[in-house]
Amino acid sequence: MIEKDLVGLKNKVAELIIVRASGHATDSQREYPQWELTNLELRRCMEEGVGGVILFGGTTIELEHRTNLIQQWSNKPLLFCADVEEGIGQRFSGGTTLLPPMSVGQIYKNNPDDAIELAENYGRCIGRQAKICGLNWVLAPVCDINNNINNPVINVRAWGEDSLSVSVLAKAFQRGISSQKVLTCAKHFPGHGNTSVDSHLQLPIIDSELSLLKEFELIPFKDLIDEGVDSVMTGHLLLTNIDAYNPATLSFSLTTELLRNQLGFKGLVVTDALSMKAITKNYGIEKASIMAFAAGADLILMPSDVEKAIDAICQALISEKIPIQRLQESLERRTNALAKIGAKEFTDKKQQLIRSQLDLSVIEEKEDRRLVNELVKQSLVIRNPGPVEKVEEGVNLIRIDSIMPNSLLGNKSPSLFLPENFGYKTTIVHYFGISPWRNNSDEPLDLDRFQKGPIFLQIFMRGNPFKGTRDNQEPWVKAIQQLQKAQLLAGLVVYGNPYLWQKIIEVLHSSIPSAYTPGQIYEAQTKAISTLFGNNNSLISIKDNFFQAFTD
Amino acid sequence: MIEKDLVGLKNKVAELIIVRASGHATDSQREYPQWELTNLELRRCMEEGVGGVILFGGTTIELEHRTNLIQQWSNKPLLFCADVEEGIGQRFSGGTTLLPPMSVGQIYKNNPDDAIELAENYGRCIGRQAKICGLNWVLAPVCDINNNINNPVINVRAWGEDSLSVSVLAKAFQRGISSQKVLTCAKHFPGHGNTSVDSHLQLPIIDSELSLLKEFELIPFKDLIDEGVDSVMTGHLLLTNIDAYNPATLSFSLTTELLRNQLGFKGLVVTDALSMKAITKNYGIEKASIMAFAAGADLILMPSDVEKAIDAICQALISEKIPIQRLQESLERRTNALAKIGAKEFTDKKQQLIRSQLDLSVIEEKEDRRLVNELVKQSLVIRNPGPVEKVEEGVNLIRIDSIMPNSLLGNKSPSLFLPENFGYKTTIVHYFGISPWRNNSDEPLDLDRFQKGPIFLQIFMRGNPFKGTRDNQEPWVKAIQQLQKAQLLAGLVVYGNPYLWQKIIEVLHSSIPSAYTPGQIYEAQTKAISTLFGNNNSLISIKDNFFQAFTD
Questions:
Q1: Is the pLDDT of residue A535 over 80?
Q2: Measured between alpha carbons, how far is A374 from A495 in angstroms, rounded to an integer?
Q3: B18 and which of A113, A268, B52, B62 could share a cystine (Cβ 3.0–4.6 Å)?
Q4: d(CA B315, CA B292)
Q5: Bond preceding residue A387 cis, omega within 30 of 0
Q6: pLDDT at residue A350 above 50?
């Protein structure tokens, strides 16, 4: 039963809060110190009863050490979650990084059976590796249907562009994770696919009628619920025809009436991060926390101020604005979820000690490697296999989002070293570099800024969060036309955004060696690049002077 | 005694080999796969008796896990070493990164007592953190005297530019490390300071007479030996007046006659890495290994092929080209060194299990932080404190060596975000970016490639290995003259190379806010930048749109 004293109440309410922490061990290693608690703060949170941690950054070894340590700071079994939609390696070095879900969606179009098997293996890979590292809750699958090609934040994170493929693949993924006794999360309810706005930056507005949602966006959620998904994440999305004032995260109509009552969801409801601008721009943390809880959420993710969030909810319970039974229900749902994955083991200190002795150098199994290779192979689009011409002097022009940190490019990266072997010297353009553009909308590339010679162009672009519409402002289609006109386009690869690729092939001469892959990881680079340069041994020969550019 | 059978002999010879491994847990995380063994290969080496590992890359948590795991693969106590001359953080994220030794050398000029205390604390910091991570041998102090301003590889790694300061500070450093029961290494015998060539790339030639060496280069080595340094690393340096044919690493005259007989060194002699080009360009690995061992080296560092190195030395012993007693002597020296630091603990599996339970989130102690701050404060040179003018539109122009990976710049880096707050938008120039240069030797910067407005210039340059003379080819002095002439230089910071700073101040107008620091780490950036921009609170206010450039 619920304690009536304030300390006891706070401890119970704290159990519903998920705080953000770095996966790194030390405070100085935190990548986003403004968002990630120090170890001292984190320990205090755990001692005050906070019930969950979402982790970002670090290595698998650190993560295992970290979850172990944080659990020791608490006297209750904790939820440890992470945004590892595309593999543990997406956030934690050492884990496997897969291709984005959209790669499976593309395979589904031609080989639905293969795709379903791949999606299940995809989930199993993430679930198994998550468990080794001490995570017990994976914030996936994404159940959004990406039906807006200008969607800046879902894009390749979606399993597809129609309700059937998303539903079928997300269910298969869910089976894979669940087989490893790790909790799952369908997100972002009621569907973030049909927006051209990133809720990290502002509140997306969706004006579909409920009846339309039921025929489209809600299908994957409903199917996942029927399949037994453990949690649903509500999104910062304003559904004007359902609740004209409050985003789904804070809306009783959406969370309780639609999700719980109409769709019959009995598991955990978790909000999307309350630290996101869609919320912080419009609500204080106290108000947002109370509203989310009152709306029907069980777990409050990343409140910008943990103390204030807890105190605000406590006050709402004491003043009976929110009935105390709501707290009891949420706590029960949390307990049930943990029981489902046998979380009692986590409270046994001896078990924890044994876990640390694992040889974590073998976190990736052979089947994971096969899965990566299969995803790469089956989702690669080769429009013209080349080979790209070897030249005396050319440019390997690479467009990336950010350089610091960037795990996609490094001294082992085929997109860098292979073209170097064929005479194309690497030049990387990125947000912090000298701009490649000039003020000429028809011929936007300032070619004087590059070395002379033909250009092998590689575009890494995939609607990353927080970037807003920045990507769309770069005139790559025009640039490609300009290069073709000047007979300077030696070849092209697009990594990530399928809609950019579609726009490009409308203008791209069929004579140009070119390829598209939904992935950006080394394996995707290797496959695309080695195909275009005529699959040969030079892939493994890396020039010494190339390595010198990296060594420090 | 030495076994006569080949397997037994190989196992003994293997004990003298130090192989290179990544500090990361998994094979796919290796940063230099061409130089770092896979886990399978590494395990095999350990099972065959290899006696030591040099580790590069990873985090402190990973390193602790790693040394523990590798030790379990062996049946003898292992040497675990690393090039952590400037702090554990130099190689392993999570450890403290200090300022380069030259910062202490600069402090020594005015405050010798302070500098000596700092150097001892410097050693203690590295020794303590090394031990926590499972390292038992630190490849420092550098005993080279940097008396060549064009030295591309020693530079700020030296403790000073004269024999006295290097000697005094290296001794203090050695006391600090030894106090933590961690082995030390004086390098690079007989002195790498007076070269303008990097032995990673080619063999430096030094034509000093022995008598001159004794009056200068050898002094710090002799003093360290008298102080009880545990090991000496011989360098790939051709001393034409002592051994006209063989570099010190492979020279009996230098290793045995000079180092052992004349200087009386009784500890471990280790070669510099045999994988370096100074060696591989001129010798096969079999020949180099035999020669190094015959010359008097006890330990062979990073042979490019471990099996071949072991077999070659075995054959030389069997054929009695090298007397078997040499092997016995080297093994004894190794055993003695390990005994000195109580390495028996390492063979006790139970002890290892206990080590894993450490809370490694507190590897850095308060005294380490104080040391960093003191080094930063005392070595900072402010020529004109500014403040730098706030502008509507300016450029924060940053020159760095490499972008991938680069631990110096990130979303927390003051050199990036602080100038942004004052209107200077960051543009980074680096080896893989669009060049800032044009073909005009008097006005080499192509200003059309930058945004309009005044330029706040930050140069990160410090003679990193493998870069050869590349740094010197960049005409920064001319560029500064050009910017001054165009009245576009808003301010300047040089991080690292003191000789570049000296050249710059010869032309720099005294009216320009400017600073030099030997360090490149965040703390050095913070101090330099916050001073020039008028030490105020904006240091902690980071614009949201700035963070968006990083998040992915």
A1: no
A2: 17
A3: B52
A4: 14
A5: yes
A6: no
Residue B483 has which token pair?
Answer: 């910017």
CA atoms within 13 A on the CB side of B306: 27
Stated as kind and residue range, the H or E segment containing A396 is strand A394-399
Q: Phi-psi region for residue B87, left (φ > 0), alpha (ψ -120 to 50) or beta?
A: left
Under 8 Å CB pairs connecting chains A and B tally to: 186
Q: State the residue for tokens 């909308």.
A: A441
This prediction has a pTM of 0.93
User: CB under 8 Å, gap of 24 or more: what pairs does B351-356 form?
Assistant: B352/B68, B352/B71, B352/B72, B353/A353, B353/A357, B355/B64, B355/B68, B355/B134, B356/A356, B356/A357, B356/B64, B356/B65, B356/B68
Q: Is B272 a catalytic residue?
A: yes
Summarised one tens digit per residue, pLDDT across range A485-499 is: 999 999 999 999 999
The answer to whether B191 and B221 are in contact (CB under 8 A) is yes
Q: What is the ipTM of this complex?
A: 0.91
Q: What is the DSSP code string of B247-281?
A: -GGG-HIIIIIIIIIIS---SEEEESPTTSHHHHT
Rounded Cα distance, B375 and B379, in Å: 6
A381-384/A514-517 β-pairing: antiparallel
Among B22, B24, B26, the residue to mutate for chain A (most A Cβ within 10 A): B26
* Amino acid at the residue A366: K
Q: Please determine, for residue A411, whether its predicted confidence score (pLDDT) is greater than 80.
A: no
Q: Catalytic: A200?
A: yes
Residues of B in contact with A450 (CB under 8 A): 434
Look at strands B52-56 and B79-82 and give their pairing: parallel
For residue A549, give both structure tokens.
């550019």
Instruction: State the Cα–Cα distance between residues B459 and B400, nearest whole angstrom.
Output: 7
Q: Which residues contact B541 (CB under 8 A, 6 or more apart)?
A: B421
Nearest residue of A to residue B43, measured between CA atoms: A361
Provide the angle, in degrees to the nearest 10, between the axes of the packed helices B163-178 and B112-133. Answer: 40
Helix or strand holding residue A164 (H, E): helix A163-178
- What value does the CA radius of gyration of chain B take, rounded to a whole number of Å? 24
